[in-house]
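Fold this sequence, please.
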Amino acid sequence: MQNTIYFWFRRDLRLHDNHGLYQALQRAKTTGAKVQGVFIFDTQILDRLSNKRDARVQFIHQTVAGLKKQCQDHGGDLMVWYGNPDTIWQTLLAEHPAAALLCNADYEPAAIARDQRIADICAMAGTSFSAFKDHCIFEKSEVTKDDGKPYTVFTPYSRRWKAHLMQNPVSHYPSNDVTQHLQVIAESDRSPMPTLEEMGFEAFSFQYPETTVSQTLIKEYDTKRNFPSIQGTSRLGLHFRFGTISIREKLTKALALNETFVNELIWRDFYLQILWHFPHVVAGAFKPQYDRIDWRNNTEEFERWKQGKTGYPIVDAGMRELNKTGFMHNRVRMIVASFLTKHLLIDWRWGEAYFAEKLLDFELASNNGGWQWAAGSGVDAAPYFRVFNPALQTEKFDKQLTYIKQWVPEFGTTQYPAPIVDHAFARKRCLETYDAALKSN
């Protein structure tokens, strides 16, 4: 297999408009090599998951099974492994030397470190290693200020992003036709795929969001996106997260339909470049002075927040929706995050970790950015004293209580708990606590 080019599927689980796969196929075309796809269920990630009925793992498993079937339909196969990528690539390249290993880039600090280790393994084996931009429109330092420094405020970043797009239109990568350049694998030699059970997980029935949305939804996105009781958002986050759809294709369509939806795609790029330039945000505040906040971190109150039993119905509805479906409406995400950090003075990292455990569309850059925005410690230009009032948010965005009644049926009865804290008291306590922290040395 020295005439083989490996393509490592990761957060790009599709054959169409896949940049790295396209580059692998082009290289195969010019060199006469064959492309062999690989996917690895990474034990370094899976072993950290305590929930063995994880809907995300099942989604990945189902999607990879579909990819494997597509490769087999073209006469080849997708190698699917379960283990440590470092060990697997070291063994695979030693046993089956290859010309190259290609993949698409990942921008999370742990992934960057992993890819550097894999690049070193490839160098030792005499195999070239290359990663390509596929997960976002613009990456790293493609959109910067005139002095080359990264933007830390969204609005000027988005303006420059749009100007950059005008000068650098989106490219598409026709990677669907793999027939001529795929490594041919006889049916008898095709490798089995590890089952969920063999990896320690359980299969269960779950309804995943569709990969397509109507043009009408996108056209009306700016007027309907803030109301959690209606289908006003795309729910494509899961598919962007694992690359089952192309962000380039979605952007191309959205550009002609709705600027507000386009702005949401720009937010993804914005938070990714923040993570790239400021990796310290993974463990600490973007603005370090906010790490001086004296969080209350009351564990009993945190449990009530997680269970949706705070006595604030819009907060409780959001948490129950999350726990039941793995999804929470974007407007409600801001409300529940503000409530945890500002009303209860619980460290944003606690909430971020809980979202990371529960959200189908969990993505480190966006999740971290959103939580730090809510806590006031992130890149938002607004001052820390913005504290969402759950009652006003309900009046604006769920006035008929449709969303609340769907998820909190006991609201309005004696079974519903009293508010965990008074809003006016909580706001005053929050502002005093933040003020003290920011004035301290």
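The first strand starts at residue 4 and ends at 9. The domain at 1-135 is CATH 3.40.50.620 (Rossmann fold).
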